């Protein structure tokens, strides 16, 4: 699974947000944001919360017993049943008619 900082970078790229835009939204100098996103320095939780909010995302604490399920969900491998798919009964009735 990608690191937290890699996930922040991916989220920023997915939203097509520049570092300058995110920095402006959270009131931080772009150079300080670059340092924060590098993952090489400790960053305050409030800063991470602000970055997450600017990227329309949140960071959460996941209990270890649920970590695998959360990872699978994030990777799109465990998204649940396809509610739009036809049931076997519906497919049978279509074939019968």
TrEMBL record:
Gene3D superfamilies: lambda repressor-like DNA-binding domains. The lineage of its organism: Bacteria, Pseudomonadati, Pseudomonadota, Betaproteobacteria, Burkholderiales. Residues 78-87 have a biased composition (Basic and acidic residues). Residues 8-62 form the HTH cro/C1-type domain. Residues 78-97 are annotated as: Disordered. InterPro entries: Cro/C1-type_HTH (IPR001387), Lambda_DNA-bd_dom_sf (IPR010982). This is Helix-turn-helix domain-containing protein. It comes from the Bacteria.
């Amino acid at each position: 699974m990608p690191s937290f900082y890699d996930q922040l970078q991916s989220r920023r790229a997915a939203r097509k947000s520049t570092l300058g835009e995110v920095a402006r939204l959270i009131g931080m100098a772009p150079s300080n944001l670059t340092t924060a996103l590098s993952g090489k320095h400790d960053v305050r939780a409030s800063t991470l919360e602000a970055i997450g909010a600017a990227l329309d995302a949140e960071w959460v604490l996941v209990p270890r017993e649920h970590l695998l399920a959360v990872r699978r969900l994030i990777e799109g491998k465990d998204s649940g049943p396809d509610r739009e798919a036809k049931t076997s009964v519906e497919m049978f009735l279509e074939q019968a008619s």
